[in-house]
Here is the input.
Amino acid sequence: MCGATPPGASCPNCATTASGEASATWPPVAPEGSRRIPIQPKDWLVFFGVFISAPLLTVLFAAVTPRGGVAVPVGLLGSAAAGLYCGFWLARRFLNGDGARLACGLCFSLVLFLVDLVLSVAGCGMGGGMRGL
Here is the structure.
């Protein structure tokens, strides 16, 4: 016992309680059946990087290609890929159970695909992909 532990609490250093017996809750254990993936700060950077990549590529291709020829397929396919990745990324990190992950992953993917597609259409317009029409 370290001496700094209040009565009834477990010491994070030596894993004992105030009475001196070993604590059953240290180190913390995930609940049975929980397979959540812990979120690291860099994971959010990857998430937002993938999510914003399709609109940024759409702006780039709309600006450099004549009449924005490849901007539309890049925006559509990129939005679909980013929506799938980001939707299932969210489901894996916040839900337990394979059924819940699959169902919510598909719903998250659909919503994120639509949001990313709207951003890609705006990017196409900002990049000049609609010029000449």
